[in-house]
Sequence to fold (260 residues):
Amino acid sequence: MSVTALLAEDEPLIAQALAADLARAWPGLAIVATVGDGLQAVAQALALRPRLCFLDIRMPGLDGLSAAQAIVEDWPAGAPLPLLVFVTAYDQYALAAFEREAADYLLKPVDPARLAACVTRLQRLLAQQAPPLQQALDQLRGLLAGAQPAAAERLEVIQAAVGSTVHLVPIDEVIYFEAADKYVRVVTAGKEHLIRLSLRELLPQLDAQRFWQVHRGLIVQARCITSAQRDESGKVVLSLRGRPEKLTASRLYAQLFRGM
Fold:
């Protein structure tokens, strides 16, 4: 059976060149989809379940790291996770993280000799027994942690504008933040607000000991979590203090909820 791969690259000429180079370096590789943004990468990866994903780091919609996170979080339980190869123009500092945590990385413009070495590495990894799910999750967590921006000044008040009015919401009152398209929902016990800020921009401004990211689109104040129930897929369902709804923590962050 052919090894299958997905290519995610927003520049068509680079995507075509990478597909052609892969065809020469790995004639038996079957490219099942080529997409131009991170959202399509996630959708096609989950639908087609390729064994390899070549992800450009900078793409519209979702970047490569966020797409990888979404793929891992939503991947069916029991199915082997794909090997992730990041295609990047990042500097050497970032490459150290990719080399440590990803299956491999390729630096643009892709060098044929480097691609050949990548193919050899991937073939060796595929020939081995698939790594345990926990190992794969640990690797992606390390990669995401290495890519986090530096901590910024801590927020004490959220300023949520509605028309000409700005509502000041003390950070202690926030139960959770949830990504909502181009906005973030700020949810307290009795109200909800929208702010035009991404979770990635917001996260460095929060105290990591108090606010836990539990999903790619969800940050929860830890003291507002009353219980955590793990399901068969490895995800964790959270009950909240002050809110009736339940939230789901992905497998990627399930390690936050362990008995003492």
The chain has two domains: 3-146, 157-256. The domain at 3-146 is CATH 3.40.50.2300 (Rossmann fold).
